[in-house]
Amino acid sequence: MTDADLTPRVQRFITTHIDSIEKLEVLLLLRARTDRVWTAPAVALELRITEASAARRLEELKAAGLLVQDGSPGEAFRFSPAQSDDVKSAAELAASYAGRRVSVISFIFSRPMDRVRGFADAFVLKPDKDGKGHG
User: Fold this and answer.
1) Per DSSP, which regions of the chain are E strands?
2) In 3-state terms, what secondary structure has residue 17?
3) What is the DSSP letter of 132?
4) What's phi and psi for 4, nearest 5 deg?
5) Tell me: the pLDDT tens digits for 40-69?
6) What's the DSSP call for residue 2?
7) How many helices (H) and strands (E) does the chain have?
8) Where are the beta strands (DSSP E) in 48-116?
9) N or C: which end of the chain has fewer CB within 10 A?
10) What is the mean pLDDT of the chain?
């Protein structure tokens, strides 16, 4: 599968907001169930992840402007993106994940490797202007 399997909007949204399948699953859960607020224990139970991990993902998504913290006690959250474009992008991502799950997963896993490659490239020794390498 290639990046071409996903729309540019979905690719941008993933690149900007999603760095793990777990974070994707948390986002899609809250997006699908806007009729309620979600706490870390409820998300953990629903997705079968640890409460600590659920709490971390909820905070990350809130910091990204995709969730709001509800006034309810117990750190409750709900899906409510600050940007209307993020509402559309999340809907398109949900549809892509439902129909082309492997493409979405492959794209998510390709992103960290790009960052590692970019970091490593920063240390590649380039030749001096006189054509001699460092060494």
Assistant:
1) 67-69, 77-79
2) helix
3) P
4) -65, -20
5) 999 999 999 999 999 999 999 999 999 999
6) -
7) 6, 2
8) 67-69, 77-79
9) C
10) 86
